[in-house]
Amino acid sequence: MKKVVLMILFFVIIFASCSVKSSQITSPDENIAVSFQLSPKDGAFSYVVKFKEKTIIDTSYIGFNFKNMPSLNKGFKAVVKKPVEVNNTWQMPWGEQLNVVNNYNEVTVQLEEIADLKRKVNVIFRVYNDGVGFRYDFPEQENVREVFITDEKTEFNLTEDYKTFWIPGDWDIYEHLYSTTKLSEIDALNYKVNEALAQTSIPENAVNTPVTLVGKEGVHLSFHEAALVDYAGMTLKVDTEKLSFTSNLVGSKNTDYKVKRTAPFKTPWRTIQITDNAPDLIASSLIVNLNEPNKLGDVSWFTPMKYTGVWWEMHLGKSTWDYGMEMVDGKWKDTGKAHRKHGATTENVKRFIDFSAKNNIGGVLVEGWNTGWERWIGFEDREGVFDFVTPYPDYDLDEVTSYAKSKGVQIIMHHETSAATKTYEKQQDTAYAFMQKYSMHTVKSGYVGKILPKGEFHHGQFMVNQYNNAAIKAAKFQVAVNAHEPIKATGLRRTYPNIISREGLRGQEFNAWSSDGGNPPEHLPIVAFTRMLAGPIDFTPGIFNIKFNEYKDGNQVNTTLAQQLALYVVIYSPVQMTADLVEHYEANPKPLQFIKDVGVNWSETKVLNGSVGDFVTIARKERETDNWFLGSITDENSREIEIDFSFLENNIKYEAIIYKDGKNAHWNNNPLDIAIETLTVTKETKMKLNLAAGGGLAISIKKTN
Ligand code: NOJ
Ligand code: CA
Predict the structure, then answer these.
(1) Is pLDDT at 557 greater than 80 in this prediction?
(2) Residue 16: per-residue pLDDT
(3) Which of 178, 203, 340, 571 has the smallest CB count inside 10 Å?
(4) Residue 561 sits in a domain of what CATH number?
(5) Within a domain: residue 536?
């Protein structure tokens, strides 16, 4: 720290005397150093990031273009504020861990134009041991009031042609398979988009974040953003020759700017997670640390839980969301054409309640319970279709909720907004109050389809505000939100813990109906090191009937059964679905035992090993019991992994139930081959285990003494 202060003081003096032009701030462990300077030529501001003395980000400039004023990118003078070191620990109400260490050095560089408008913008750097965050702060000032940003130009000039794990910079959806290419070979404009997507828009050769890069000498980088509030989502435009990214904000067809704000305001943090190995990327808390503390106070009305649901059966085609009603004079009418496939019936939901109660599963999600599904996907005019309070005639909400209560199970609400934002905004008070009346504390929301009003995109400023405002409003009714087709996670769950989970990736559902073969075995070993760095994922694991030929001949899940169990540990979410049909679980009581046992809320997480896109092993300690659970998954390659149980406590014997791929297991040829054994393990135990191709390993580790 002393070194940091000295260097910064040097900087101030330098500026006062206008001779030398740079200064730096380091991470608390001094492995990461950010230096910044004004160009002697034109007074443009740039920064450089070094990791263990190696330049990771070379001279990279910053700047803004506006609709209503000249660009702000040069002609600056600078004052550097005294740096501060912050070191505190905060607690997550639920999460991957209980205590989060928040330790960084911060410096604010106050930039001011020397000539003309004398506009001011502060650049705030926070340097942690696991990466860097920086944001722009537009203070209150004479010549900057209402601001219409047409482009933010934050550069990230890289120094190596990294192996890059990326999805295209789609303005409308993140549900894409990852490509693995060199940085110089990223070609988002020729990315083959899945034909089933109801909306997509890829205007540039850009990628969405988190995007993860692996260097030849083991440097691991992941670019993302934190605290995305009242601003447009950021994609990263790729320059394949210069090997660089430049921020490219998501726009709108309805405005000739991308962000509208009034000074004073701050942008989201631009983040770079930096480690020298893959596991530490997952262990990084940079994204949540850069967000503000909990603004909701006591949130104990929500409890993390596993949940089943009337859901997979629709994706398999066993049942439907819609009931068969007709719209007559703008009102839904039961005209006697109800079909027998409607899924959300009182009787069917009770079956899920019974099953959940029996198997230590806290919730039941019910989709297709409310009127409107007859005019959902594929319809242009979706405003006014759903109301979120009117059940179909065969669904008795009073009966279902009181039955659930008697069994100690919660019903999870479903709001498919169909991206009809006007309707949803108008309905929110009523819809959340309705939930409160039925003591429902969790809603899964959905935003399938092109955004209404037309011309907006899922990731622009308009929708960022829709998602954030919905969650803030929901909190007032003690409702926690799990959004699908969401805006990306940027750590806001720290500030609003009721933002519990979200989709925002190609989830399990693609395996049920996608015409491109579903999610390949490498998908989740990539997701763990990309999308999961942003925050909790509602992936919906636990499919036991891997091939489901009786429903869909041409589709299947592309993992072994053991991997489906491992996902409960590998993928973090405070709501974790037990996604398969009741009958498929009842036919397989032995592997079901793992789901029954596994926790959902953790006091500690240890990432034991891993390689981006190849495999990963994670152990997590359950908050309530101090039992440990371990999950390991691999891509299409089988491999042997060594598990070192040294994370366990001293002098304690544990009973380990091991759920591993059988000898002949293979994601495609033999996915159901699973071997289950019980052993005693201690802190001293080391074990070599095999993962099949597309396979996995799940272990529950319970204290015995
Ligand atoms: C897409 C969601 O991802 C899926 O989980 C849900 O079942 C459908 N929309 C219907 O809302
Ligand atoms: Ca989806």
Answers:
(1) yes
(2) 35
(3) 340
(4) 3.20.20.70
(5) no
C-alpha–C-alpha distance, residues 433 and 442, integer Å: 12
Ligand 2 center from residue 484 Cα (angstroms): 6
Q: How many residues does the chain have?
A: 705
Same domain? For 453 and 587 the reply is no
Alpha-carbon span 705 to 703, nearest angstrom: 6
What DSSP assignment string belongs to 509-571?
Answer: HHHHH-TT-SS-TTHHHHHTTTGGGTS---------SSS-TTT-TT---SS-HHHHHHHHHHS
Let me know if residue 510 belongs to a domain. no
| 226 pLDDT above the threshold of 90 | yes
Number of domains in the chain: 3
Ligand 1 probe mutation, 448, 519, 540, most atoms within 8 A of CB: 448
CATH code of the domain in which 257 resides: 2.70.98.10
369-401 burial code (b ≥16 CB/10 A, e <16): bbbbbbbbeeeeebeebbbbeebbeebbbeebb
User: By C-alpha distance, which of 266, 256, 262 is closest to 150?
Assistant: 256
275 in Cβ contact with 260 (< 8 Å): no
Give the domain range for residue 644. Answer: 517-531+541-705
Answer yes or no: are the C-beta atoms of 638 and 695 closer than 8 Å. Answer: yes
pLDDT at site 330: 85
pLDDT band at 22, cuts 50/70/90? low
Q: What residue type is 311 in one-letter code?
A: W
- Whether residues 466 and 562 share a domain: the answer is no
As a whole number, the mean pLDDT across the chain is 96
- Residue that has been written with the tokens 């409003």 in this structure: 473
What was the pLDDT predicted at 177? 98
- The CA-atom distances, in angstroms, between 345 and each of 358, 541, 558 are 20, 24, 31
For ligand 1, atom 2: residue with the closest CA: 484
pLDDT at 354 over 50: yes
**Whole-angstrom Cα distance, residue 31 to residue 26?**
7
Residues 356 and 414 in one domain: yes
- What is the tens place of the pLDDT at every residue in 367-421? 999 999 999 988 999 999 999 999 999 999 999 999 999 999 999 999 999 999 9
Q: Is the pLDDT of residue 630 over 50?
A: yes
Q: Which ligand is nearest to the CA of 458?
A: 2
* Segments of 175-254 assigned E as strands: 179-182, 206-207, 211-214, 220-226, 234-239, 244-249
Residue 195 annotated as catalytic: no
Same-domain pairing of 586 and 674? yes
Residue 3 has pLDDT above 70, yes or no: no
Q: So what's the pLDDT on residue 479?
A: 99
Q: Say what the pLDDT of residue 264 is.
A: 98
Report residues whose beta carbon is within 6 angstroms of any ligand 1 atom.
311, 367, 416, 446, 448, 484, 503, 509
